[in-house]
Amino acid sequence: MSQLPLPHPTRMLGDSGIAISSIAWGMWRLAEGNRTVSEATHLVNTALDAGITLLDTADIYGFDGKSGFGDAEALLGQVLAGDPSLRGRMVLATKGGILPPLPYDQSTTYLAEAIDASLRRMQVDCIDLWQVHRPDILAHPQEVARALDDAVAAGKVRTLGVSNFTIHQVAALSSFLGHKLVSTQPEISPLRIACLENGELDQAMTMGLVPLAWSPLGGGRLADPRSASEKAVAATLDSVARDQGVSRTVAAYSWLMAHPAGIVPIIGSQTPARIVEGLAAGQVRWTKQEWYAVLVAARGEPLP
Questions:
Q1: How confident is residue 104, by pLDDT bands cut at 50, 70 and 90?
Q2: Of 11, 84, 149, 240, which one is least surrounded by beta carbons within 10 A?
Q3: Is 61 a catalytic site residue?
């Protein structure tokens, strides 16, 4: 039975010369639970020592609806200040453009301020990948492009990307940018397959964008499936997981990584063992039949 190729261990961010690992680690919950700088440093070292080089955060991470805006970036900044050698081992990605309670602001003025604020919080001179977190429908893409191009020209940002953009929003912004986008960050999981069928991944492959998958475990629902659909997907993943001696989590990551677009799952766990475990996904082999079985389970109906 035909097996799909194993994922390449690295991906390139456009023509920037920046290589990233095939799995990323996300810091959405880094600042939760009064985590200390020492504990955060251990997590960063865990990811880097395991071979994960892309570390993903955002200025909104840490915000609880009332306070905490920028807390995850600030904690990472303390980690980097305590051990400056860590900076050279990572590809640092962050996002901005969400500004509660507006909820979004991508005016040229605000984006410039948001990028500067992220640099200050993380105590770095340059961000390797800066992404617009969610689209501001009231911002003209030419205005957004101007702010992003200015940040690259000033040496504050090396590469650019978007998160949660539709294919048309990506195309509109790209048409005004002087510096090409290198990434797109949609929600992708075996429980959320929309971008596999709505053209997002086709556009990513056409434009050379690296798809960074947030919530690749369906917001934790794969670990505790409740609905009939979720249980069907979990059971199909379990079949491959059992055969190859991995967890359902690893099988889920590897299912995404088997797609030809080169999807990079973002591990959201703040538990060291779970972070390290994710690297096993790069060695899981899928047959086409097995891969499509998960897709059919996720669709809830046979393919046409």
A1: very high
A2: 84
A3: yes
β-strand partners of 55: 25, 92
pLDDT at 18: 98
Indicate the angle between helix axes 71-82 and 37-50, nearest 10 degrees.
Answer: 80
**264-267/210-213 β-pairing:** parallel
Are 180 and 223 within 8 A, CB to CB? no
pTM of the predicted model as reported, rounded to 2 decimal places: 0.96
Q: What is the pLDDT of residue 2?
A: 82
68: pLDDT strictly greater than 90: yes
- Whether domain 10-185 has CATH 3.10.20.30: no
Q: Which of 61, 104, 110, 292 is catalytic?
A: 61
Map out the domains of the chain as residue ranges. Answer: 10-185
Q: What would the mean pLDDT of 219-243 be, rounded to a whole number?
A: 96
